[in-house]
Amino acid sequence: MVSTHSQVATAPAASLGWSRLPADYAIPATAPSPEQAREYCCRLARSHYENFSVATWFLPGRLRQHFCNVYAYCRISDDLGDEVGDTGAALALLNQWEAELNACYDGHPKHPVFVALAETVETFNIPKQEFSDLLRAFRQDQTVTRYESFDDLLGYCRYSANPVGHLVLHLCGYSDAERQQLSDFTCTALQLANFWQDLSVDYAKGRIYLPIESLRRFGVSEDDIASNRNTHAFREMMKFEVERARQWFHRGLPLVEKVDRELAIDLELFSRGGQEILNSIERQKFAVLGQRPAISKPRKLALVARAALGKLLVKRRGQRI
């Protein structure tokens, strides 16, 4: 429980934080209606993630609103930690956001995300920890900017990435340990692919997600990263890290055979998207500093077309039964 003194002390920091974010992120004085809250989440999902609408094409209609609700939570949570630019303010906002999460589970939220999310939580019986673990990662980003070992980095991914996969599984009716473990492999791999793609972006924020032990092993200095020097040693290190991420994608592959086919199409789309990021890094000969790898539009269209074909085949198979 936060003391009154602590709340007063963090109030200026929180005010600073909210002022640096979109106005509609703020926690309102009164809760919106459930209909307004659902629309808020869908609008946020559509406007903040260009691929979200594409992904939801392949979801059963009954799940789309719930995916919007979960995505809206993840999106704002991430922005509270990453877009404020002040450690004290970010931590104050994350504390307020967690108080709203608690209010959601206690039955009296005010923010539209949590008003909408309350229905999702109740419908799918989602444990609060899956949401709060994400906040733990975003708090960690405020204070931990280097990771000594790969195991240390995996510990971070446990909170920054794996809960998202658990949430998706809960929405689709799965909560067993076997599927969650396979999901963890895939989500960790996606997180690693994003780290390797965004090395320069993250360094500009003061963070290095490459394990320090890898820098030492390959003879790469932090100054190489700061100066965007894609040396031979750096590219050899990235080749090693890309292959390691591919191994984690491979370990998660059995999940698509253990879920409903419609969900499997979505999982395969995201997994292939992450692997395509790694392919883009390889096509650049692993020189990612100062030149962020990206998936080309033709490759994106090919991935979507493949998924769309899979969706069509599922429907046709269902019609024959």
Structural class comes to mainly alpha
DSSP strand (E) fraction? under 5%
- Cα-atom radius of gyration: 20 Å
Helicity, as a percent range: over 70%
Low-confidence stretches: 1-9, 50-54, 310-321
CATH class of the largest domain: Mainly Alpha
Describe the overall structure.
With 321 residues, this protein is mostly helical. It has two domains: 11-143, Orthogonal Bundle (Farnesyl Diphosphate Synthase); 144-321, Orthogonal Bundle (Farnesyl Diphosphate Synthase). Helix content is 73%, strand content 0%. The longest helix is centred in the last third of the chain and has 24 residues, at 297-320.
Any chance you could write out the topology, listing elements then pairs?
Layout: H1 4-19, H2 34-48, H3 52-56, H4 61-82, H5 87-106, H6 112-124, H7 128-143, H8 150-160, H9 162-171, H10 177-197, H11 199-204, H12 212-218, H13 222-226, H14 232-252, H15 261-283, H16 297-320
Helix pairs in contact: 1-5, 2-4, 2-6, 4-5, 4-6, 4-7, 4-9, 5-6, 5-7, 7-8, 7-9, 8-10, 9-10, 10-14, 10-15, 12-14, 14-15, 15-16
